[in-house]
Amino acid sequence: FSGGLRVDETRDSVVVALDYRPLARWTLEAGAGPFAGGTITALGTRYALAPGFAGALGTSYRIVDADGAIPFVLLTGQISYVSSSTSPGGGYNAFDLRLGAAVGTTLWRVLTPYMVGRAFGGPVYWRFQGAPVVGTDDHHWQVGGGASLSIGSRFNVYAEGVPLGEQGVSAGAGYSF
Question: 3-state class of 55 per DSSP?
């Protein structure tokens, strides 16, 4: 953050996303849901992030189809927003623009393991000790992997772990209409 302030931060959210595929290789996505909370630790003091709002708009484009030993390659882009507040403290608003790539393959028509890399950045606005501060991420990159499992023709579940750069874990389920 401005003024040399360094913090540790944990955020949790639940997002419901709708995907629309206007072309076989191109997908659009919109998601929103509750920001469930988290913490910011600054100068030895822990600040609770209150529940709030999380939202995202994104797109992906498959530039290479999987073919035998050749994996698929998917390019991704997303803009996201989180709104919350801390007590003590004040308003907390974070914006993020992410660009990434995923490489993987589908095994036995049901299991899709993949690797992912992303670069991103965006400002974070917060009130710390009564004064407005502006910050950004320590790590502007992620490297990790995940897998999706198809269950029947319309349902899937996935999990992703990102141990390098900005760390994260996500999991979810999807249904195709």
Answer: strand
d(Cα 145, Cα 162) in Å, to the nearest integer? Answer: 6
**Which among 16, 17, 15 has a CA at the least distance from the CA of 60?**
17
Instruction: Express each pLDDT in 115-149 by its tens digit.
Output: 999 999 999 999 988 889 999 988 899 999 999 99
| Single-letter code of the amino acid located at 19 | D
- Given a contact cutoff of 8 angstroms between Cβ atoms, the answer to whether 128 and 42 are in contact is yes
Q: How far is residue 158 from each of residues 49, 111, 148, measured CA to CA in Å?
A: 27, 10, 4
Burial tier of 153 (Cβ tally within 10 Å: 0-12, 13-18, 19+): exposed
- Average pLDDT rounded to a whole number, residues 96-121: 97
Question: What is the secondary structure of 131-147 as a DSSP string?
Answer: EEEEE--S--EEEEEEE
First-to-last alpha carbon distance for the chain, in angstroms, is: 43
Which of 123, 119, 163, 160 minimizes the C-alpha distance to 141? 119
Token pair listed for 42: 């600054």
Show the tokens assigned to 155: 């349902």
> How many Å apart are CA 109 and CA 143, to the nearest integer?
25
